[in-house]
Amino acid sequence: MALKPFFNEMYDTAGAVRPHYAAFADWLKNTPPEKIAQNRQAADLMFHRVGITFAVYGEATGAERLIPFDLVPHVIPGDQWEMVSRGLKQRVAALNAFLHDVYHEMEILKAGKIPADKVLENSQFRKEMVGIDVPGGIYAHVAGIDLVKDADGEYYVLEDNLRTPSGVSYLLENRKMMMRLFPELFAQQRIRPVDHYPDLLLETLRNAAPPGVDNPAIVLMTPGHFNSAYFEHAFLAQQMGIELVEGIDLFVQDNTVFMKTTQGPQKVDVIYRRIDDDFIDPLSFRPDSMLGVPGLMKAYRAGRVALANAVGSGIADDKSVYPYVPEMIRFYLGEEPVLKNVHTYMLGNKADLDYVIANMKDLVIKEAQGSGGYGMLVGPTSTREEREKYKQRVLDQPERFIAQPTLSLSAVPTFVDNGLAPRHIDLRPYVLSGKTVNFVPGGLTRVALREGSLVVNSSQGGGVKDTWIVD
């Protein structure tokens, strides 16, 4: 099956440049190809110097590789962004309300709006969190919401990332690079700034401190340099002026977390953790974890330390819970969703399973708890053999999978070996929840660099672009 027609972000159906791309199109037309090639080379060199890499697990060519960066920005008009902003605030508010509810009264389950087993029997539901009050009732302090635009030009939420969403360092470095290479483009038009993200994040983490702590000591906890996003952990800690620590640098005494320093133990009030629930405390979760801090959950339950994001946030971004987010918005906020979900088939449901098995070549099938683009089948670009193999996996444990129609993601012209060609993109804005909800305009635009590919994840060979919100 050929992929459906797609929405081109830069050109309309008649081939005319859309108004918000006019300044960039002029620059493109008036800049000699040699100069463009020079700038592309300079961008690669800068990414090398800064060390903007992404580790790819299981790749024979080496653990790390450079993130491919493309010079053509993803431009979004300001009025369109206002609608997206409203939708993001609404969605994250509902997700935080849901997290508080399922670990306390469970009203939404009692009301039958979500099947109780979808939550209570889910491995992302952490019984250890039941009844724990987190500061300000905020569970997901940092949320990455993946948006796509279908052929109809409308935005859809593809998935919510509430555990340890990554990629914001690329957003910041992309902008720095574009401003350095094309100062004239920034002088000609009003492109909204993004460089204040570390300040907003630091403010969000300060607001997450336990009650009564006015000047919290904050650390960023990383699993270590073998993690695929380690560059980002080090980058954000440095930008915020906070310590980057591993589990071995922390210890718990009298239900209080301390950091080992050359001046002796220093109390820690807030941990921005970039490490999964399973590994943060070997006494509460995986006893074989060498990455965590023994006793951390005890200190957390006692309210002596705050974790961002909260333990147990993963239940709200599980793909089998995703279809119920519009219902959460109605239930908790009494509003209609501003941003639509993609229609989702739940394969634990016999009718959905039968339909999906009969139409595998037209659908995208994913593991409910998968991430990073791993473990999915993109029907239209798959072979019969791949579908047969995948079908067996689905039939063995159907409740572990969901399926969605193949969206024809919108495309932006992208430099490839033989010039400019459209390549499919998605957009991940980062939403920060504290006393208020904040985010920088735009987000990280990821681009599928292979022709016809709809998989934009860096771990699957995708690249990145700068995102411009223009007024």
Question: What can you tell me about this protein's structure?
Answer:
The chain has about 475 residues and is α+β, with helices and mostly antiparallel strands. It is about 30% helix and about 20% strand. The protein is built from 14 helices and 23 strands. It has helices at about 20-30, 35-50, 80-100, 105-110, 115-120, 170-180, 185-190, 195-205, 230-240, 275-280, 295-300, 325-335, 350-360, 385-395, and strands at about 55, 65, 70-75, 140-150, 155-160, 220, 245, 250-255, 255-260, 265, 270-275, 305-310, 340, 345, 365, 375-380, 400-405, 410-415, 420-430, 430-435, 435-440, 445, 465-470. A 5-stranded mixed β-sheet has the order 3-23-22-19-18. The chain has a 5-stranded mixed β-sheet with strand order 13-5-4-20-21. The chain has a 4-stranded parallel β-sheet with strand order 7-6-11-12, covered by helices on one side. Strand 18 (about 410-415) and strand 19 (about 420-430) form a beta hairpin. Helix 3 (about 80-100) packs across helix 12 (about 325-335). The radius of gyration is 22 Å and the shape is globular.
